[in-house]
Amino acid sequence: MSRERLPTDRPLRAATRLIHEGESRSTFGEMSEALYLTSGYAYDTMEAAEARFDGSDPGYIYSRFSNPTVSTFERRMMALEGAEAARATASGMAAVTAAMLCQVRAGDHVVAAKALFGSCRYVVEELLPRFGVASTLVDGADLDQWRAAVRPETKAFFLESPTNPTLEVYDIEAIAGIAHDAGARLVVDNVFATPVLQQPLKLGADVVVYSATKHIDGQGRTLGGVVLGSEKFVMDHLHTFLRQTGPSLSPFNAWVLAKGLETLALRVEKMQANASVVADLLAGHPKVKRLVYCGRDDHPQAALVKKQMAGGGTLVAFTLDGGKAEAFRLGNALRIVKISNNLGDAKSILTHPATTTHQRLAPEARAELGITDAMLRLSVGLEDRDDLLEDVETALKAV
């Protein structure tokens, strides 16, 4: 098997690297990346097996540890994110859980933003404390709260930006500085922004996690996740944790995700363009009480968006003038936009966070985050712009 080398005389841009980075070809010279659907590997001799296991001969041992197809996906993500190392996982939540658990132990402390996906809050608020790791939740936009939450035993900060589902944007560079002053690492969930529009490592974050199920696949086909960071973090903390606990990405899913990366830049560009015009429609509609889109000048952190993101993204959050009944009527009146809890898909998707993704949060916790019964999250897809506008406008008449 030969590994393709990209030209090194000049840096290649993201869209090119998404197509070519990490390529490897067998002796057949296939154009599409090969799918190595195998659990184990054969060795020529007993001595060769021993050398592979003691590390003196690098190579593949078992697909729970590593696999050539999974490595292709990881290398492509590393190139896009500017990371030294990456490890793929079976899902986005496997990536989040591994990134947090691998670096802490009983007696440590974690600080996290309150505005997190429901399952992420579970990891921080409930799972970590079961293993003796204390946690503190803060208002992610308030830098003083991050500073005040630090303890001598603080080992990690965790946030997502933009947040799910309220689309708040946090100052990654400033929060990374506070974490580093405390001797802690900053872990950033970058799902909403995508690696095309935001690269947290370049802003000072230490670790980036993705649910590759979302924009990276982008077509609702498969689950996957990935953790990216320095070689030292991966080898000192993450690699052994994943190897021993086994949240492995299957080779087939890795192949699907690697192929998804080839069109990621194009899809995000089109989805973002659609999201912008849908946001404009909603912002001017009398039945919409509040509209939040990262690409608009009226976003609460518009200046910060322009500082750390290359665009407004693919998601729109809006609150109707009413409550749950009005939100449900709008959703049920849609014909093109689907009702689901996923995002980043080629198909536009409407989500009612209060009854789905953030349903497990206590009502007062949802209220604190601004997740009301009248709030909806719209993940804008690749449909014709005018069809989307007509569908949303027609559905608003039902409210």
Quick take:
This protein has 399 residues and is an alpha/beta fold. It is 39% helix and 16% strand.
- The radius of gyration over CA amounts to 22 Å
The helix/strand order is: EHEHHEHEHEHEHEHEEHHHEHEHEEHEH
Average of per-residue pLDDT values? 95
Q: Which structural class do the helices and strands define?
A: alpha/beta
Principal-axis shape equals: globular
- Amount of helix: 25-40%
Largest sheet: 7 strands, mixed
Poorly predicted runs are none
The total of helices stands at 15
Oligomeric state: single chain
What gap, in angstroms, lies between the N and C termini? 59 Å
Trace the largest sheet across and list its strands: 3-9-8-7-6-4-5
**Percentage of β-strand residues:** 15-25%
- The tally of strands reads 14
Question: What tags apply to this protein structure?
Answer:
399 residues, alpha/beta, seven-stranded mixed β-sheet, five-stranded mixed β-sheet, 14 strands, 39% helix
Describe the protein.
With 399 residues, the chain is of the alpha/beta class. The chain is built from 15 helices and 14 strands. The strands form three sheets. A seven-stranded mixed beta sheet has the order 3-9-8-7-6-4-5, sandwiched between helices. A five-stranded mixed beta sheet has the order 10-11-14-13-12, covered by helices on one side. A two-stranded antiparallel sheet has the order 1-2. Helix 5 (118-130) links the parallel strand 4 (109-113) and strand 5. Helix 3 (68-81) runs parallel beside helix 10 (251-261) and helix 4 (92-101) packs parallel to helix 5. The longest helix has 20 residues, at 264-283.
